Amino acid sequence: MAKFGERLFNWFDERYKIRGFIEFMSHKSVPQHRHSIWYYFGGVSLFLFIIQVVTGILLLLYYRVGEDSSYESVQFIVSKVKFGWLIRSIHSWSANLMILAVFIHMFSVYFTKAYRKPRELTWVTGFLLLILSLTFGFSGYLLPWNELAFFATKVGTEIIGSIPVIGKELLIIVRGGEDVTGATLSRFFGLHVAILPGIFTVILFIHLLFVQIQGMSEPPEWEKLPPEKRKYIPFFPNFLLRDLLLWLIILNILAVLAVFFPWDLGKKADPFAPAPAGIKPEWYFLFMYQTLKLLPPKVLFIEGEFFGVLIFTVAGILWMLVPFWDVKTEKGYRNRLINYIGLFVLIYMITMTILGYALS
Ligand code: HEM
Ligand code: HEM
Question: What is the CATH architecture of 33-221+233-266+278-358?
């Protein structure tokens, strides 16, 4: 048997140079310091994305898109399909945990300044992954075609209409008509299960390739440390085993959440019914939604809502380009301003989210 295993290994090695790859993996190492914990959140985001793909494909076995079938098929999934309720619940919970993990990963990369040269494009591709994850969440939310999702999507897409000149056209493209209808549902479905997975996979591949090529960043303070004072652990197996343990813990948390707090389906959407009170988007959009709500109808001759959209767009672009304008950090100086900006953004997002819940 051992001989057979060896022969099989050699067969592949002759063709695909696996020995070289194993050699490469065994030399990979991860810096060990008091902020090393943050190196795990990219892996956690990745794990939760894989869960989304697996459970999403399973849901696709029974989900049937359409005004007359979406809600009914999800109802069928949760009541008749064996473990269907569990798969749907895991897909919904994991979507939320994934977005939370991506936010934690992004802020930790920001505060540890891991976006510095040469990782500028790792940051930019990561930011694109965040936008894609949010679009995944927004498009998936409508798919069960229940009351809450219907009105949240109506309110969410309305914001596009506030853009001058092209807003109306854009809104029609997004909704597939003037209103949120079955056309919107099938558009969101295509986006959710075909377009987004395709684009996401390509960008994720590039993101991980960059990380592979450059290895993990070292803290800026290490530049003054003599090489013998810098500590590392091997990626394989030490770091990977820790990664796997954390993934197992997260799988357990997911299972507990999905079993004890199964995701509610609610009432079927009725486009002619009045909007129920307290309609609000998912928590990860709430800080933007709440800001738009608090803005006065007119700011400096501009429609208040559009002013908000403009500010968020500009702020988002500046955030995406932070590795290019944070020149001070790149040159090796301490840049306190960057920490203050990050702290302001974080506190702003948390405060507005809490206000969003408190004021509705
Ligand atoms: C679903 C989304 C994402 C996935 C699956 C992902 C995955 C990963 C993984 C596995 C790593 C290596 C381990 C680690 O540092 O945690 C990593 C590193 C990195 N990611 Fe992401 N990431 C995502 C989103 C983001 C976002 C939103 C940003 C920032 C805007 C970002 C910026 C970076 C940077 C700069 C590194 C290098 C960190 C270092 O060298 O210390 N990523 N990512
Ligand atoms: C290839 C990947 C994916 C596939 C094939 C997929 C497929 C599906 C399907 C068929 C549904 C409708 C069933 C239902 O509503 O229970 C759904 C719902 C949903 N998806 Fe995905 N999905 C994928 C990835 C993602 C990702 C990455 C996220 C978020 C980050 C996400 C978030 C959601 C949400 C929030 C719902 C609504 C859940 C509900 O209330 O029922 N999905 N997805």
Answer: Up-down Bundle (1.20)
